[in-house]
Specification:
Length: 174
């Protein structure tokens, strides 16, 4: 039987923004209910691939490893809510042109390997709370958090009883 891996490409926060996001998640629990994501799991997904067969793994690893070095920052100034999956998230009021461009570039490269880009618009977000009962009362994230990123990661999501465990399979230089 072919083995499948649940994969996505993501950016991981630098230490300072990770701490700030974790503190923000903790502070929102009393207001929104739900459970904060473990700080080490916080990330922004650039491309979600879902279940991918073993045979396609090498090409993805190579894509990640050969991705040009990144250097950028993302300013998070907004809180949002996805009611169906019951997620409270942090993101930005104005779409970040750098992240949108990176998302497009990545999907163009993935399309060359036979992956189909999603039809839904890209809404970069960092999930802060799962199983949230309500959105945050205010839509702004104050003070804003500036996230510095320097590499792209290909990550496998491994289901575990307490929530997914993320395992980085490959990353770009940075
Ligand atoms: P989430 O943070 O909003 O849950 C691993 O599951 C990562 O891929 C998470 O960042 C998750 O987003 C995202 N993800 C899961 N299912 C997805 C889907 N169908 N489309 C886009 N992203 C998805």
């Amino acid at each position: 039987m072919t083995q499948h891996h649940r994969l996505f490409f993501a950016l991981w926060p630098d230490e300072t923004s990770r701490r700030a996001l974790a503190a923000q998640a903790q502070a929102l629990v009393s207001e929104c209910g739900g459970h904060p994501l473990p700080a080490g799991n916080m990330h922004v997904t650039l491309a979600f691939l879902g279940n991918v067969g073993e045979a396609r793994l090498d090409a993805l690893v190579s894509l990640a490893q050969n991705w040009p070095p990144l250097g950028g920052q993302w300013r998070l100034d907004r809180l949002g809510h996805f009611p169906k999956p019951r997620i409270v998230w942090a993101g930005s009021r104005m779409p970040s042109p750098e992240l949108v461009a990176l998302n497009s570039r990545l999907w163009r490269a993935l399309a060359n390997h036979g992956f189909t880009p999603p039809s839904r618009e890209f809404t970069p977000h960092v999930s802060l709370l799962r199983q949230a009962e309500r959105p945050a009362a205010q839509a702004s994230l104050t003070p804003p958090i500036t996230w510095h990123y320097d590499h792209l990661a290909l990550v496998e999501s491994l289901p575990e009883a307490g929530g997914p465990r993320y395992h980085t399979l490959a990353r770009s230089a940075g």
